[in-house]
Amino acid sequence: EDQVTQSPEALRLQEGESSSLNCSYTVSGLRGLFWYRQDPGKGPEFLFTLYSAGEEKEKERLKATLTKKESFLHITAPKPEDSATYLCAVQSPNFGNEKLTFGTGTRLTIIP
Amino acid sequence: DTGVSQDPRHKITKRGQNVTFRCDPISEHNRLYWYRQTLGQGPEFLTYFQNEAQLEKSRLLSDRFSAERPKGSFSTLEIQRTEQGDSAMYLCASSLNPEAFFGQGTRLTVV
Question: Would you place residue B6 in the very low, low, confident or very high pLDDT band (cuts 50, 70, 90)?
Answer without folding.
Answer: very high
